[in-house]
Amino acid sequence: MTNEMRAFLKHAFDRVRGSVAGTVTVATLGPAETSSACVAHRVVRTVAASDEVRLFETFEGAATHVVNDSRALLLVPNAYASLNTFHFDTRLRLAGCFMHPIPRYGIARRPGNSVSAGAQITVATHPAPISMAKDFAARFAGSRIILTPSTAAAAESAANGTTDYCVTNAVAVAAYGLQFVSAPRNVVMGWSLFSARRRNDAGE
Fold first, then answer.
1. Are 124 and 192 in the same domain?
2. Domain span including residue 167
3. What residues have CB less than 8 Å from 24, skipping those under 6 apart?
4. What angle do CA 111, 117, 120 make, to 5 degrees?
5. pLDDT value of position 139
6. 93 and 193 in one domain?
7. How far is 66 from 80, CA to CA, in rounded Å?
8. In the prediction, which pLDDT does 95 show?
9. What is the structure's pLDDT at 88?
10. Domain shared by 81 and 176, yes or no
11. Alpha carbons 112 and 50: distance in angstroms, whole number
12. How far apart are alpha carbons 36 and 102 in whole angstroms?
């Protein structure tokens, strides 16, 4: 993480924290194995160990928390399809954007789960990396892509046998006992931070 990025994050946290010392909460999508959660923890470690991460089932749920907590920040990846709703939410203010890598992404499966090239398969994926699922599924005679609310949920789907494969990250692969069947990719992603809008932010 560059010094410029550290300075930006410290400024965003300090603005929310205010003049009185206290804990700032970063709200984002859970569970813990999601890329959003991993980046949120990295952000908190960069700024202050006393701050915390709070995880939600949806980004919209995280946004509601931030609206009602003046000492909270909403973290959303720019790849999220509905990011625009937070930009146009009059209760929120864009604190800024930054770039940060996510855990390596790839196609994964349960160990020993072998599927022949002519078989029909199912692939679980969050909507954001769906192109990876489509590219992989095109190798098979038939396939069905199952959308999940997070990459961690996609990994869980493959782990419990609901689907044959999933698109997920290295953290979830380790947590759910999966194995990559494709070379995992390094991805650098843009991230947006939002805070609750204050009265003096009205003109922004």
1. no
2. 103-185
3. 13, 16, 17, 47, 48, 51, 52, 71, 72, 73
4. 85
5. 84
6. yes
7. 18
8. 94
9. 96
10. no
11. 43
12. 8
Mean of the pLDDT values across residues 60-85? 95
Reported as a single tens digit per residue, the pLDDT across 2-36 is 888 888 898 889 888 875 567 899 999 999 999 99
Q: Which two tokens stand for residue 120?
A: 């029909």
What pTM does this model have?
A: 0.89
Q: How far apart are CA 30 and CA 36, in angstroms?
A: 7
Contact 64, 98 (CB under 8 A): no
Q: Please tell me the number of Cα atoms within 13 Å of 187 on its side-chain side.
A: 23
Task: List, as one string, the DSSP characters of 162-175.
Answer: SSSEEEEEHHHHHH
Report residue 10 as tokens: 């410290």
Report the percent of the chain where pLDDT is more than 90: 73
Is residue 82 over pLDDT 60? yes
Token pair in block for residue 161: 């046998």
Closest CA to 156 of 182, 175, 136: 175
